[in-house]
Amino acid sequence: MSLSGWQLIWIIITEVCAIIGIRISPAIAASNQDAWLSILIGGVFGTVLTLLVVHLSMLHPNQTLTQFSRGMLGNWLGRMITLPYLIAWCLFCAGLLREFSGFLQPILIDRTPLWIMMLLILSLMIFLTYSSGMKGIGRFCEIIGPLIIFVLIVSFILNVSNADWHNLLPVYVDSGWISIIKGSVGPAFWFPGPFTLLVLIAFMKNPQQAISKSMIGLGITVSMVLVATLMVLMVFGPNFASKIRFTYFMYVRTIDILNFIQNVDIFFMFIWLFGVTAQLSLYLFIASYEMAQWFNVKNWRRMIWFIAPVIFILAILIPNETAFTFYDSFWMNVIFPVCGIGIPFLLWIVSIAKRNESNKKIDNNCRKG
Amino acid sequence: MIKVSKLCLVVLLTVWITTGCWNLKEPDQLAFSLGAGLDLLEDGQLQLSSQIVIPSGMGGQEGSIGKKNKTFRVVSATGRNVYDAVPNIQLQLPRSLFIGQRRIILIGQRLAEHGIDDLFDEFIRNPQSEMRSRIYVVKDADAKDILAATPIFESYSSTELVDKQEAIGLKSYYFRNFLSDALRPSLQPILPALSLSASKQTVYSGSAIFNKNDGLKLIGFLNTQEAAYANWITGRQKRLVVTSFVKRGQGTVSLKLHTLDRRIRVKIVNHEIKIEVRLKGKGTLVENNSNLNPTKENDLRIIQVELSRITQKSVQQLIEKVQKQYKTDIFGFGESVHRHYPSQWKALKKNWYATFPGLDVKVKVELQCSDPGEANSSIKIIP
Fold first, then answer.
1. Rounded Cα distance, B144 and B138, in Å
2. Which of A1, A340, B166, B234 has the maximum number of C-beta atoms within 10 A of its C-beta?
C-alpha cells in the first residue's frame, strides 16, 4: 500500500505532542516526584497493549479493523464491534481539537472566538486528509516528526541550567507502588495512540516490519515523554509542578539563557500546532476510512463531509474546561477498557483460534491428499 | 471531484487570510509593566504598583543638551487582591497594561509581616504571566519606593534588580523557585531583601525569613553576612568573600571564594537525628595584611585553618540563632532528612516544627586557598 516503515515511526512519534502537552500533569498529581516511574511503567504497559494491537493487525494482512472484524465475525457482529471505535475516534478528535484550541486561545489570541480557531484547524485537517489521505499524512509526519524531536531535545538542553536533580528525591518511598501504578494507567493507555494502529498497519508497504517499526516509534515516544517529565520535575519541583495545568508549556516559558534566549514558547507552539494538526488529520482520516468500510462505501473521501461536522459539533458542545474531567474519566473507565483491551483481545483470540482451525484443515487436506 | 478540490482550495485560502489579524496589538498600543510592587497600606488595603516603561524616553542621543527624559513611571492602585488592582491601574494609563514582561516582584515589609500565603496565585494562573520574574522583599520601605528609585546604569530599576542577584554572588533565584520552596512541606522559604539607602539607592540587605506554618509571615531578617552563609548551606550562593583577623599573623586576610560546595549529612542513631553540615570553599587570596607569607606552605596552612575556624564559628552561630530565635528550618535540614530517611520522615514530618530548634547540628568548614595572589609576603609598609 502506501505507508513506509519510517512513516509509521514518525506517525507514532507525533502523538508525543498530545501526551507531553496533556498527560504529564495528571501523572505528577498522582505520584509526585515519582511521576517519571509512572511514565516508565506506563510505557511498559503501553508496549504490551501496542504489541497486542499490532499482532492482531498482522494476522489480517492488508485489512483494516472494520474489514477483518466483519470478515471474521460476520457483517452485523463485526459492525457492532467496530462501532465503539468510530465513536471513540470522533470523541478523541473533538476533545483534542477543543482542548488544544482552549489552550492556545488565552495565550495567543484571546479576542478570537474559540470556534473560529477550531474551524481553522478543522479546515487544515480536511485539506490534508481530502487532498492526499494516508499518503499525505505519512509524508507530513515524516517532515514534522524530526522537527518535533529536535525542538524537544533543544528544550531539554536549554533548561539544563534550571534543573536540580535533588527535586527527584526521595525515589519511591513517598508515593509507594499504588500511587505510581495509578499514575501510570493514563500514559499506558495513551501511548499506543488510541487504536490507530488497528487501521494503520493495513496501509504498510511491508506489513512484516510492523512490530519492529512500531516498537521503535513507541520507544522514542516513551523516552521523550520520560525526559520531559524528569525535566519538568527538576525545574519546578513536584509540589509546584502538580499545580500547573500545562506543565510542559510553562517549562518552556522558564527558558532564559543569558537574558538572550527567552520567550521561546511562541516557536514551540508553532511546532506543536503542526504535530497536533497531524494527529487530528490522522484521526479524521481513520474515522472516515473506517466509516466508509462500515457502510460499504467505495469512496471514503465522501465520509469526511460527515465526520468533520460531527467532530466540530462535538467540540463545540464541550462547554468548558471542567467538562474534561468527565471526558477523561469516560475514556479511562469506558473507552479504554472496551476498545483498548477488551475488543482487541477478543478479536485476537478469535483470530488465533480461526487460524489454528484453518491450519488443521490444511493439515487434514494434506493428509487426505 | 474537481469541484471539491476547488472547494478545498477556497477553504485553504480562507485559512491563510483569516489567521488572527484582528487580535494584533502593536507594541505602541501597550503599556509594558516591568515590575510589580505589592504593599499593605496603613488602612489595611492592598496596593499594587507597576513600573511602566516609557519608550520615548529610552532612545535619544547621548550628550544631547537638556534634561534626559524619564524612562519609566510608577503607577499604583489598590484592590482586594492582586488582579483587582490592575483595572484600577489601567484607569490611569492611556495604553492597555501588558504584564507579560513583569521581571520583578517586590513585597513591602508591612505586607510581608501581615502574611503573603494567598498572594501568588495570579502570578502563575494569569495566562499572560511571566515565568522568569524574580522576587525580593523590601526592608524598612515600601515596594513602591524601590520601583521609583533612580537606576544607576540601566533605564529601569527593574532590570537592574534582575542583574543584581548575579552581581552580588547569588545564584538566580526566580519567583518560581520561591513557590517551589514554599510549597514543599519540609522547607521554610527565605527571600532576598532590599532596602533604600539615605541617598535613595537600592541596597541588598540580606535575607527575609518567613514562617509557613503561620500564613507565610515575615518573622525576621538575616544580615548580608548571615544570608551569605545561609545561602551557602542551601546551595544558592555562587561566590563569597571571607575576611578575618589571623591571630598568629597579627593582621587581616581576605579570601575570595569562587567555588562553594556544601554537603548535608544526616544520621539517625537511636531516634536521635544528627546533622552534619560540610561547607567547602576554594578561592584566591586577595588581601593579606598579616606577617605570614602565603607562598610558604606552613604559613598558608595557618591562614587556611584560621579562616576556616572563624567561618565555621560564624556559621555555627547563625544556625543556633535561627534555631533559637526564629525556629524555622530555612536550611532545608528537614528536606535532607526526608531524602536520606524517607520512611522515618513520615513520622517526623508532623513535629518537625518542634524538632528543629533542638536539632543537633555540627558544622565543618574547609576553606582552601588555591592561589596566593600576585604577591608573596605582605606589602605592608613597615618603618
1. 9
2. A340
A136, A138, A142, A143 alpha-carbon torsion, rounded to 10°: 30
pTM, entire model: 0.89
Radius of gyration of chain A (CA): 21
The Cα of A100 is separated from the nearest Cα of chain B by a number of Å equal to 14
Among the partner-chain residues B11, B184, B338, the one whose CB lies closest to the CB of A127 is B11
Number of A:B CB contacts under 8 A?
76
User: How far is B253 from chain A, CA to nearest CA, in Å?
Assistant: 34
Domain interval for residue B72: 28-58+67-222
Domain A5-323: assigned CATH number = 1.20.1740.10
Q: Is the CB of B14 inside 8 Å of chain A's CB atoms? A: yes
The domain tally of chain B equals 2
Q: What ipTM was estimated for this complex?
A: 0.85
Cβ–Cβ below 8 Å for B20 and A250: no
Q: How far apart are the first and last CA of chain A?
A: 36
Q: Tell me how far CA of residue B233 lies from CA of A31, A159, A237, B261, B265, in angstroms.
A: 29, 24, 19, 9, 12
Smallest Cα–Cα separation from B106: which of B148, B125, B134? B134
- Quick: pLDDT tens for B15-69: 666 655 566 677 778 889 999 999 999 888 999 999 998 887 765 544 444 455 6
Listed in sequence order, the residues at least 6 apart from A130 whose beta carbon sits closer than 8 Å to its beta carbon are A301, A304, B4, B5, B8
B99 and B199 inside one domain: yes
